[in-house]
Design brief:
297 residues; six-stranded mixed β-sheet; metal-binding; 18% helix; 7 helices; alpha/beta; zinc
């Protein structure tokens, strides 16, 4: 498996990528990193969504939906988590962010969810024409979701099954440091990357942003802090939690983080985390947000 990314063709298609505000969530840092010097430290992290517009066919591809404004309508266990552990603030949801560039949910061809945690699934109901794309492992989580399991944090009804594709990564090709990726449009412009560790079905996006070799990697919840990518910290172990850390499979998460670290070393690659507080602070109010776009390296 080569760690370099495929070079562009002479007529290379790419994606214009715009960030979308879709709520904020308070994240206690003691849950994520080992070098946290302040056990009381909490960051108000964005829950970012992204609009990817294909350069040729102009299709609208949405990655993640953030947090829904009426969060009281999440499953009861989620509502309890928000009230007691992870407070949220949604001044602008993903639909309102899209409207700033005169796009409505009816204009979105594909909605790809990195995974089905509440701060990424938003409210799927307005997207009545969209095809939903999720990792194959999501299916079992929905089957055992709320209300079948009243203690589940995942609502079994969040996806319109007739318009949902459960993407099975078996047989996907390698892409740079990643062993399994799907060339979504078939032209090398946008890849869906199998990204195990955080939760079953977790997927991320690696997309070209120019015709001459620029890329952006949208990392979802592969990692919650940049110190984990740089190696300045390790994933915090939480003995009192069922999964012992913020990821269901710590070993798989660590292996995937190493692949992201390798990606960082490649030229002209930007990496944005779903809860990238530092990136948000540096870019707040800038035209990286729709209707602007993130400039290529």
């Amino acid at each position: 498996m080569s760690e370099s990314l495929p070079p562009p063709t002479s007529t290379q298609a790419y994606c214009n990528i715009s960030a979308l505000e879709s709520g904020f969530i308070e994240l206690p840092q003691e849950l994520y990193v080992t070098n946290n010097s302040d056990p009381q430290a909490v960051i108000s992290a964005p829950s970012l969504s992204f609009l990817l517009k294909h350069s040729e066919i102009q299709s609208n591809f949405l990655f993640d939906l953030g947090i829904r404004k009426d969060w009281e309508n999440y499953p009861p266990m989620v509502v309890d988590l928000i009230r007691k552990k992870f407070p949220v603030c949604i001044t602008q949801d993903v639909v309102e962010s899209l409207a700033k560039g005169e796009i409505s949910p009816l204009d979105i061809q594909d909605v790809c969810l990195s995974h089905c945690h509440f701060d990424h699934v938003g409210d799927t109901k307005p997207f009545v024409r969209s095809t939903f794309l999720v990792g194959a492992g999501t299916s079992a989580l929905l089957d055992s979701g709320y209300p079948t399991n009243p203690r589940s944090t995942i609502a079994s009804e969040i996806l319109p099954i007739s318009r949902t594709k459960f993407l099975e990564p078996t047989g996907w090709s390698s892409l740079g440091p990643f062993p399994r990726a799907l060339d979504f449009h078939g032209d090398g412009s946008l890849y869906i990357v199998d990204s195990p560790g955080h939760i079953a079905g977790h997927i991320t996006i690696l997309a070209r942003t120019s015709s001459d070799g620029s890329w952006i990697y949208l990392a979802g919840d592969s990692v919650h802090h940049w110190d984990l990518i740089t190696g300045e910290s390790d994933i915090e172990v939480l003995p009192h939690r069922v999964h012992k850390c913020a990821h269901e499979d710590k070993k798989a998460a660590e292996e995937h983080i190493l692949r992201i670290r390798a990606l960082c070393k490649l030229p002209r690659v930007q990496i944005i985390l779903a809860h990238d507080e530092s990136w948000y602070k540096s870019n707040k109010g800038m035209p990286v947000f729709w209707p602007g776009k993130i400039q290529s390296l």
